[in-house]
Design brief:
Muramoyl-pentapeptide Carboxypeptidase, domain 1, alpha+beta, three-stranded antiparallel β-sheet, 2 domains
């Protein structure tokens, strides 16, 4: 079988209008108008390459039937969704089937083909493909219940930040509590913020992210708060708690060597932030009280550059205000720890053909979002809350976040 990867096309399937084919994905910065795919783990561009046969179509049919590519177009083009589904299959074989030699790199060579043929012979379907919003895991149900409890609580009891938000006419990609949407038909990402009130110039990756998708929950870690060193300014930006709309997109869109898949505010104006106006290197309610030289409240501001992106393996916090996810480890749909450290890159420098590293657990996050998004859904709801909000549900409690983070960092 031939080696297939991003840009491979079956005979006669190379699009005549490459720009139009890529337009739904290439909507940011330097990607606009590009006629090649961005292979962000190799930091290179991949052209459309047509070959004989229909191997890409057969691959797509397998990925669809095995539960990794539910919204397959069956177009014979190895595009971004096909690449994401291949990586999810490889990760499933590596982690769930305990094949440590498998690296989820999105390249279908002889090793990946052998596992595909084995799955076909055995008629296997992944557990990820068997779940849905109507057939959820218990953890998914617990989280959805907590989200709805949180809405009721914060509509009735908004703190100083949410009161200020409620007073604004325009909130852009940030929603007021009464408009928070927790429909199971949407993708939900939950950020759990910890230690934000502690003053420090170099913040750790000590926060959690829970992806609720297709009736399952996957757990990641990183940071919701900026590191002063990365922000390079005294009044660093903190994304406010609450719900925000994010769309599929790219990060570092002005630096060609660094462009990679990420999430961006759904409104081009951005999301609502509050700066560290009192310069204590922390996020506290005092920041909402600071006034300017004319006595006017500085308050909340809209910011277009608060993305959700990668932070290496998690050794350093690469956030200047963005929400950042580490690549070293994650918890799967069964809440089982998955160690990605053997192939997870520490930084851009290891994302080369020779190093054969990937962004590790961060790729699992972006691939799940791309593959399991319901039809016509190109956004997710990101709900950021503080650790103490977990006390609203008996299924979580005060030490849930610290225990989960310690587990994720134990590899």
């Amino acid at each position: 079988m031939p080696v297939l990867y991003l840009g491979s096309c079956d005979a006669g399937k190379r699009p005549n209008r490459r720009t139009a084919y890529l337009k739904p994905y290439h909507i940011d910065g330097l990607l606009i108008g590009k006629v090649s795919f961005r292979d962000d783990d190799r930091t290179k561009w991949r052209s459309f390459r047509e070959s004989s046969g229909n191997d890409v179509l057969q691959l797509q049919k397998f990925l669809h039937g095995a539960g990794f590519m539910p919204r397959c177009a069956f177009d014979g083009v190895f595009g971004y969704v096909t690449q994401a589904a291949v990586r999810l299959f490889q990760e499933y074989v590596r982690s769930t089937e305990n094949v440590p030699s498998m690296v989820p790199d999105g390249i279908v060579g002889s090793g990946t083909w052998s596992h595909i043929h084995r799955w076909i012979q055995e008629g296997k379907v992944s557990e990820w493909g068997k779940h849905s919003a109507s057939n959820p895991t218990p953890e998914y149900t617990h989280w959805m219940n907590l989200l709805n409890q949180a809405k009721q609580h914060y509509v009735a009891n908004p703190g100083p930040i949410l009161k200020h938000l409620n007073s604004l006419t325009k909130t852009y990609a940030t929603k007021k509590p009464k408009d928070w949407d927790f429909s199971s038909n949407n993708i939900h990402l939950i950020g759990v913020r910890r230690k934000q009130t502690e003053s420090t110039t170099r913040r750790d990756n000590d926060d959690l992210f829970f992806l609720l998708i297709n009736g399952m929950v996957f757990t990641f870690w990183g940071s919701t708060d900026p590191s002063v060193a990365m922000a390079q300014r005294k009044d660093e930006a903190f994304l406010i708690e609450g719900q925000h709309s994010y769309r599929f997109g790219w990060h570092k869109i002005s630096v060609e060597k660094k462009i990679y898949r990420a999430l961006k505010p759904a409104d081009h104006n951005g999301v609502m932030i509050i700066r560290d106006w009192d310069n204590d290197n922390a996020f506290t309610n005092n920041d909402i009280k600071v006034t300017d030289s004319q006595g006017k409240l500085k308050g909340l501001r809209v910011n277009p550059s608060i993305n959700i992106h990668w932070t290496g393996v998690g050794r350093s916090n690469f956030s200047a205000g963005c929400q950042v996810i580490a690549g070293k480890s994650y918890l799967n749909h069964k809440n089982e720890l998955q160690d990605c450290s053997k192939f997870a890159s520490t930084s851009y420098g290891e994302l080369t053909d020779s190093d054969k590293k990937t962004k590790g657990a961060y790729n699992v996050f972006t691939d799940l979002v791309l593959c399991y998004a319901p039809p016509n859904v190109t956004q997710l709801h990101y709900t950021l809350g503080r650790e103490e909000s977990l006390d609203l549900s008996a299924n979580f409690g005060g030490d849930f976040a610290s225990k989960t983070l310690n587990l994720l960092k134990s590899v």
